[in-house]
C-alpha cells in the first residue's frame, strides 16, 4: 500500500467519525434502547380513532430523519410517553439533523415517505437499526 492510499484511508476514517459525531449516534442509540426497555410499547398499531396505540411511519431509505421527526412529534402529542423528556430530546435532535443535513445518508428528503406504519416499538427499533448502521 502506498502513502497516498494510506492518507486517503485515514482521511475517510476521519470524515466518517466526524459524520457519526454530528449524528449523535451513541446518544441516540443509548436513549432509544432506554425507551425500548419500557413495557407499554408493544401494543398493536391500529389506525382507528379509539386506539391507544400509536401508528408511526416506518421510513423509506433516505427519508429516515423526516419520519423520525414526524414520529417523535406524534409520540409527544398522542402517547403515554408524551411526558418523557427523552422523546422531546430525540425530536429536537432529529429536527436539527434534518434541517442542517448533519447525517447525509439519512437526510435526502425533507418529507417523510413510508410504505408501512408500525407501533412505537417497531418505530424505535427502526431508529435503533438506522443509527447502529451509521456507527459501524
Written overview of the protein:
- Residues 1-20 form the signal peptide.
- Keywords: Signal.
- One of its GO terms (cellular component) is extracellular space.
- It comes from Phaetusa simplex.
- GO terms for molecular function: cytokine activity; interleukin-9 receptor binding.
- The radius of gyration is 17 Å and the shape is globular.
- It is mainly α and 136 residues long.
- Helix 2 (25-36) packs antiparallel against helix 5 (120-135) and helix 3 (64-78) packs antiparallel against helix 5.
- It has a two-stranded antiparallel ribbon.
- Residues 5-21 have low confidence and may be disordered.
- It has helices at residues 3-22, 25-36, 64-78, 85-100, 120-135; strands at 56-59, 114-118.
- It is built from 5 helices and 2 strands.
- The longest helix has 20 residues, at 3-22.
- The protein has a single domain (23-135), classed as Growth Hormone, Chain: A, CATH 1.20.1250.
